[in-house]
Specification:
The complex is a heterodimer of chains A (573) and B (163). With 573 residues, chain A is of the alpha/beta class. Chain A is built from 22 helices and 20 strands. Chain A has three domains: 169 residues, Thiamin diphosphate (ThDP)-binding fold, Pyr/PP domains (Rossmann fold); 167 residues, Rossmann fold, CATH 3.40.50; 175 residues, Thiamin diphosphate (ThDP)-binding fold, Pyr/PP domains (Rossmann fold), CATH 3.40.50.970. Chain B has four helices and nine strands. In chain B, the strands form two sheets. In chain B, strands 5, 6, 7, 8 and 9 form a five-stranded antiparallel beta sheet that branches. In chain B, strands 2-3-1-4 form a four-stranded antiparallel beta sheet, covered by helices on one side. Chain B has two domains: 78 residues, Alpha-Beta Plaits (2-Layer Sandwich), CATH 3.30.70.260; 71 residues, 2-Layer Sandwich (Alpha-Beta Plaits). Chain B is of the alpha+beta class and 163 residues long. Classes of the chains: A alpha/beta (573), B alpha+beta (163).
């Protein structure tokens, strides 16, 4: 068969179709007009027109997070790309596989300060897994293949392909490579058997084992393997913010999320265990606090990660295992099944007695409101869990509401909790819900947000109207940038510098102006009814503006720079 | 501790800036960096002289390996190696300094490449310590200009960095 001769723009569209992409999130502009013209002529994938490029990347990112498919974003040169940078950096920090295609000025104009020119490869270099500038149409198909390959293998991440306009016009013979190998990129994906054996031995000999599982479990679809292993070991298990759903929250071995706003029992168990088993997690500052305080004489640490540079970066590890989490866990389960040795039941029983002692602190308890009282934000999240049978896809923005969502909406399955953990990007909530809803058309998708964050990508309500995205927006409106206000209350002598939100819009009218349903809920007793009613409106976007008790804070809390066992609990204030 | 890292990487536009960007983004030190293509022109070889604790050097090595265009990284200071750097020094060579400069160049096995009635330009090769020693040995006032390439390194004997 002879290879067809195609233009660069045709090649881009063909490559996207070859990768079985269903949706491309984007915004047109001069440098990508040829590509858009080809998108117009095809029917292999749909294009979603966002209202700001940042949202295109967030939506593509959530599309990846909430499914096993890959999100693709398409933006034009210059401002199109610079608008996309926040989205790219967000995905990079959370290791989300994604391909971003950006238009560039024609090759002859590069470096001439042309209209809508920017150094895309230079600007994005520190926040992508890799990027390419394609200067010759003959390199285009191979580069696209490399982009998808690099984005989805090893430690995943966003990959950007920058394509000058003239390259989209030029033609060449087209063939999409089926296989690819790169001499400079061969991630080590198979865990070392000797190390795995050592890890199993250590866990079996442990008196106080603890399992700490992160986003790597979700990204690598290793939740079933993790669940099986945890149950065989009988140890307590915690999830990081990124790992929620990686182990079922309803399992009695689950001790809640750990970290700065983690549960008392999870943080204490991290500190007091004798063997710590870290699975696809990276010991970051919001998780273990101060590494010097975290250090314990004699405690052994096992760490599985696909990225060698994550191992022994912040915390020295005794048994490092580099490889895909899923395969390593599978091997560990097999080893346990084949061997006769089992965890020491007496030691485990004693350890659980200690853990249960910590659990009895009931650290997530909060004072319920009277029916006609101010709405407790935590109670809204709990009511949402009830109204959705705990089975919704929840996206969140960043701040207090994000932590309440993580604490009070227990996730039993992975890829149900979509938030910006690493970069902490306000504004992701609505575009995340768009991407998640398009990837899961039958799921209930709710966006838990605050009146600060939601205004950072509010324009996407228009996109939601155009594509009939029936998300439920749960706005926990406390009239202030809650997390900032909380820090100012605790550490800045109640000086609330610029954290009060004055002149808020009427969110009900705003939702209606965009063609959606708006609700304002002001009394604690009305919360459950409003949520039930909103969820009944299956095909409508409902914006619920919950006017919450503005004095509520997130507990427990570890102050910045402190150690895991130095938590502030609600009862102590 | 001072370390010399040898990096084999794809000879592609932007590869150098990825390496340099990595060092500045993560706050690592670069004492010197030299790079040129190898006998296989699709590949470049870079020698980076850096310093840091063992943990930092381990991270630098891992982070370099993570760059898509990097093929291999070796810490030459882990074993026997040879290190050479080239320096060109222009010195004042008039009056009593003229004979003295010639003598010093000879002692350090330097070569005088260019002569005027007031100056010599001396070429010196050696490990970085030798070049430092030369600078220290002559009077600072006579130095008009220096330029150094940064170290290049290679393993001794059978130690070979190649794919």
């Amino acid at each position: 068969m002879t290879k067809p001769t195609l233009t660069g723009a045709e090649i881009v569209v063909r490559c996207i179709a070859e990768e079985n992409v269903d949706f491309v999130f984007g915004y047109p502009g001069g440098a990508v007009l040829n590509i858009y013209d080809e998108i117009f002529k095809q029917d292999k994938f749909k294009h979603v027109l966002v209202r700001h490029e940042q949202a295109a990347v967030h939506a593509a990112d959530a599309y990846s997070r909430s499914s096993t498919k890959i999100g693709v974003a398409l933006v034009t040169s210059g401002p199109g790309l610079t608008n996309a940078v926040t989205g790219i950096a967000t995905a990079y920090m959370d290791s989300i596989p994604m391909v971003i295609i950006s238009g560039q000025v024609p090759t002859h104009a590069i470096g001439q300060d042309a209209f809508q020119e920017c150094d895309t490869v230079g600007i994005t270099r520190p926040c992508v897994k890799h990027n390419f500038l394609v200067k010759d149409v003959k390199d285009l198909a191979l580069t696209m293949k490399k982009a998808f390959y690099i984005a989805t293998t090893g430690r995943p991440g966003p990959v950007l392909v920058d394509i000058p306009k003239d390259v989209t016009q030029h033609s060449c013979a087209y063939e999409y490579p089926k296989e690819i190998s790169m001499r400079s990129y061969n991630p080590n994906i198979k865990g070392h058997s000797g190390q795995i054996k050592k890890a199993v031995q250590l866990l079996l000999d442990a008196k106080r084992p603890m399992i700490y599982a992160g986003g790597g479990v979700v990204l690598n679809d290793a939740a079933p393997q993790l669940t099986k292993l945890v149950r065989m070991l009988g140890a307590p298990c915690t999830n990081t913010l990124m790992g929620l759903g990686g182990f079922p929250a309803s399992d009695p071995q689950f001790v809640g999320m750990l970290g700065m706003h983690g549960t008392y029992e999870a943080n204490m168990a991290m500190q007091e265990c004798d063997v710590l088993f870290a699975v696809g997690a990276r010991f970051d500052d919001r998780v273990i606090g101060n590494p010097n305080h975290f250090y314990r004489e004699g405690r052994k640490i096992i760490h599985i990660d696909i990225d060698p540079s994550s191992i022994s970066k912040r915390v020295k590890v005794d048994v490092p295992i580099v490889g895909y989490v899923k395969d390593v866990l599978e091997e560990m389960v097999a080893m346990l099944e084949q061997g006769d040795k089992r965890p020491d039941p007496v030691a485990l029983k004693a350890w659980w007695t200690t853990v249960k002692g910590w659990q009895s602190k009931n650290c997530l308890a909060f004072k319920p409101a009277k029916d006609d009282g101010k709405i407790k934000p935590q109670a809204v999240v709990q009511a949402l869990w009830k109204a959705t049978n705990g089975d919704a896809i929840i996206t969140s923005d960043v701040g207090q509401h994000q932590m309440w969502a993580a604490q009070y909406y227990p996730f039993d399955k992975p890829r149900k909790w979509i938030n910006s953990g690493g970069l902490g990007t306000m504004g992701v909530g609505i575009p995340y819900a768009m991407g998640a809803q398009l990837a899961n058309p039958d799921a209930t998708v709710a966006c838990i947000t605050g009146e600060g964050s939601v205004q950072m990508c509010i324009q996407e309500l228009s996109t939601c109207k155009q594509y009939h995205i029936p998300m439920k927006i749960v706005n926990l409106n406390n009239r202030s940038l809650g997390m900032v206000r909380q820090w100012q209350e605790f550490f800045y002598g109640n000086r609330y510098a610029e954290s009060y939100m004055d002149a808020l819009p009427d969110f009900v009218k705003l939702a209606e102006a965009y063609g959606h349903v708006g609700m304002k809920i002001e009394k604690a007793g009305d919360v459950e009814g409003a949520l039930r009613e909103a969820i009944k409106l299956k095909d409508r976007l409902v914006f619920m503006d919950f006017i919450t008790d503005e004095t509520e804070n997130v507990f427990p809390m570890i102050p910045g720079g402190k150690g895991l066992s130095e938590m502030i609990l609600a009862e102590e204030l | 501790m001072r370390h010399i890292l040898s990096v084999l990487l794809e000879n592609e536009a932007g590869a150098l800036s990825r390496v340099v960007g990595l060092f500045s983004a993560r706050g690592y030190n670069i004492d010197s960096l030299s790079v040129a293509t190898t006998e296989d022109t699709t590949m470049s070889r870079m020698t980076i002289v850096t310093h840091g604790s063992d943990d930092v050097i381990e991270q630098i090595t891992k982070q370099l390996n993570k760059l898509i265009e990097v093929v291999k990284v070796v810490d030459l200071t882990d074993g026997n190696h040879i290190e050479r750097e080239l320096m060109l020094v222009k010195v004042r060579a008039a009056g009593k300094d003229r004979d003295e400069m010639k003598r010093m160049a000879d002692i350090f096995r330097g070569r005088i490449l260019d002569v005027t009635d007031k100056s010599y330009t001396i070429e010196l090769t050696g490990d970085s310590h030798k070049l430092d020693a030369f600078i220290a040995a002559i009077e600072p006032g006579v130095i008009l200009e220096t330029v150094r390439t940064g170290a290049s390194g290679i393993g001794r004997g059978e130690r070979i960095l190649k794919i």
